[in-house]
């Protein structure tokens, strides 16, 4: 009986500590700080988050005001901003591995893509930086217990709803175009085995940036085609003017 009583005391202490941890808001602050730390180590930019609200008992969470700055040398302050991201957690998976997030929904994110005359762009630069850092020692994040293995997490789907894209082509004699992209769907991030928690966000951001970059290239081609057409029209008008003496 003494052993059982001791065991119950330990369990109650752990539960009490966990409830204090949640009530105190420490979980939210911890998640916020981890997003910013991992963001800095992987993108080499000072990623910032306004607020995090994780509600484990409801299987839900919200992240607001996430900003990914541009590398130096670009006109826009940020490459990517997320107004509000909602998480739908699979409660039955919280005691298993991988932990499953059923859905991550990013509402009306903003992406700023600037292309330079030499073919470089802010998004391409960020993707190259992330490829260099993901899995390297420079991307490791310190935890309170470095010997404890990180939990693995898998995301069933990620939806970027109505991304507002600003495509700056002024380096090509064009202008900044603003378009609303169709919804972007990313599926099975982390696969069946999941990814370590510190790598998951990087994987999502990398795939999201790659999808935005692909769409931006399409928009660039269309915009430059329109520019060529306008030049041809102007040239035709000029030649007609010469022909008819105008």
Describe this structure in words.
With 246 residues, this protein is of the alpha+beta class. It has one domain (2-243). 40% of the residues lie in helices and 28% in strands. The protein contains 4 helices and 10 strands, in the order H-H-E-E-E-E-E-H-E-E-E-E-E-H. It has helices spanning 2-23, 26-43, 122-133, 197-243; strands at 51-55, 60-69, 78-89, 99-107, 110-114, 152-161, 164-168, 176-180, 184-189, 195-196. Strands 1, 2, 3, 4, 5, 6, 7, 8, 9 and 10 form a 10-stranded mixed β-sheet that branches. A hairpin with a 7-residue loop joins strand 7 and strand 8. Helix 2 packs across helix 4. It is elongated, with a radius of gyration of 24 Å. The model is unreliable at 1-22 and 142-146 (pLDDT under 50).
Could you state the oligomeric state of the chains shown?
A: single chain
Beta strands, count? 10
Derived from helix and strand composition plus strand pairing, the structural class reads: alpha+beta
Average pLDDT works out at 79
Using only CA atoms, what is the Rg?
A: 24 Å
| SSE ordering | HHEEEEEHEEEEEH
Strand-residue proportion: 25-35%
Uncertain residue ranges: 1-22, 142-146
Helix content: 40-55%
**Number of DSSP helices?**
4
Total tally of structural domains: 1
Task: State the major sheet.
Answer: 10 strands, mixed
What is the straight-line distance between the termini?
108 Å
Name the shape in a single word: elongated
Pfam family, one: AsmA
InterPro entries: AsmA
Protein name: AsmA domain-containing protein
């Amino acid at each position: 009986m003494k052993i059982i009583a001791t065991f119950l005391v330990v369990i109650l202490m752990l539960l009490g500590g966990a409830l204090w941890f949640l009530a105190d808001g420490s979980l939210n602050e911890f998640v916020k700080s981890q997003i910013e730390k991992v963001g800095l180590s992987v993108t080499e930019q000072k990623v910032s988050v306004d607020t995090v609200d994780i509600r484990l008992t409801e299987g839900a969470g919200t992240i607001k005001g996430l900003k990914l700055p541009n590398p130096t040398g670009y006109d826009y302050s940020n490459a990517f901003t997320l107004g509000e991201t909602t998480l739908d957690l699979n409660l039955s998976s919280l005691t298993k591995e991988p932990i499953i997030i059923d859905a991550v929904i990013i509402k009306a994110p903003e992406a700023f893509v600037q292309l330079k005359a030499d073919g470089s762009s802010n998004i391409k630069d960020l993707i190259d930086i992330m490829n260099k850092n993901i899995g390297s020692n420079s991307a490791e994040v310190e935890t309170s217990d470095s010997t404890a293995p990180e939990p693995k997490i898998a995301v069933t789907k990620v939806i970027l709803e109505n991304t507002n894209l600003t495509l700056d082509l002024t380096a090509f004699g064009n202008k900044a175009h603003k378009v609303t992209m169709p919804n972007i769907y990313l599926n099975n991030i982390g696969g069946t085995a999941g990814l370590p928690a510190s790598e998951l966000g990087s994987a999502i951001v990398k795939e999201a940036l790659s999808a935005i970059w692909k769409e931006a290239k399409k928009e660039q081609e269309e915009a430059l085609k329109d520019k060529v057409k306008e030049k041809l029209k102007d040239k035709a008008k000029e030649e007609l003017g010469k022909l008819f003496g105008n």
